């Protein structure tokens, strides 16, 4: 079973989730589903706190089993509810999908953790029984053709077997505790974002130097006006940093304007977004492709800036600084 320190971190995670649920309810107090999840989060925080406070103390095994069985029901309910809510709140970006996966994975880890803790308690119960009565028995189960689990008989309790089973369950619950803590800490997410960034840069490099090379070379000269994305060496340029797509979080190459008259998107990114979810990622209002406005002046300025920086890109290519492209 997990140590007191790990259980303390589980309590912290549950209370942080409960506080986040409170904030969400305050911002949207008419959403009944969010209210239900808030209640469930508070109950889970209570289970974790009571687990830390007395679970390893002098409490009868029967009460511990009731405690864990009840907690499992609420953990499982939270896991089921987390799936549609996490992905419905996702903005469709890599970071948004990753965050949704983290929420669901964290809830799944916790559900299995409690299941293994319950299993360890069951084995502990049989150990205590056989210590009091060497002839004590435990049921044996079988699964019938309909998938139902039935008791097929009883066998004498083997203390050594119970201790092995308990040890396995304890190790599994401890591992799942660490998995949940790591997931909610964001370590996995930050690593995945970093890997995705490297992957994006690799695709950028291959796209520029291989797939588009024939298109970019016009009369023996590099023509950046034909690139589909802003080259990486220009991402820190003041002009391009002023025009960042809220979906890709990269400088915009082919701009289109949201109906709100303020937000500018990368055309391909917003069209892909609309195909998945026909709402504005900024205003959350219904959005169709034909509502996006062209921005010829900004596009012309982007092309002008790209032509201005062609010597810089050519110089980097000649100097072999391919990793920056």
Describe the structure.
This protein is mostly helical and about 325 residues long. It is built from eleven helices and seven strands. The chain has a three-stranded antiparallel sheet with strand order 6-5-7. Strand 3 (about 215-220) and strand 4 form a beta hairpin. The radius of gyration is 28 Å and the shape is elongated. The model has no long low-confidence stretch (mean pLDDT about 80).
Which terms would index this structure?
single chain; 325 residues; mainly alpha; Herpes Virus-1; 2 domains; three-stranded antiparallel sheet; 11 helices; 7 strands; elongated
Counting DSSP E segments of at least 2 residues, the number of strands comes to 7
Count up the domains: 2
Strand order in space, largest sheet? 6-5-7
Question: Sheet with the most strands?
Answer: 3 strands, antiparallel
CA-CA gap between termini: 50 Å
Shape: elongated
Low-confidence stretches: none
The amount of beta strand, in percent, is 5-15%
The Rg value, from CA coordinates, equals 28 Å
Please, how many helices?
11
Mean pLDDT: 81
Q: Could you give the order of the helices and strands?
A: HHHHEEHHHEEHEEHEHH
Helix content: 55-70%
Structural class call reads mainly alpha
In short:
63% of the residues lie in helices and 8% in strands. By secondary structure, the protein is mainly alpha-helical.
